[in-house]
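Notes taken during the Thursday session

The instructor put the following on the board and asked us to keep it in front of us for the whole hour. The protein is Tautomerase. We were told not to look anything up and to reason only from what is written here. First, the residues (62 in total):
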Amino acid sequence: MPTINVQLFEGRTIEQKRAFVKAVTEATVETLGSSAESVDIILTEVKREHWATGGKLWSDAS
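Then, after some discussion, the predicted structure tokens were revealed:
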């Protein structure tokens, strides 16, 4: 039973999330040979002010 955790910036539409989890599920089934029903995907939305790269908050990026 694969469980896939994805962290992403908040702001995606529900349609984008549906398309994403469908595509990831299909790729998981194809590559790992698991059933779609056994694939769990957890989306964690993160505010840009809570994510930094290279010592700089994404909320500060121009």
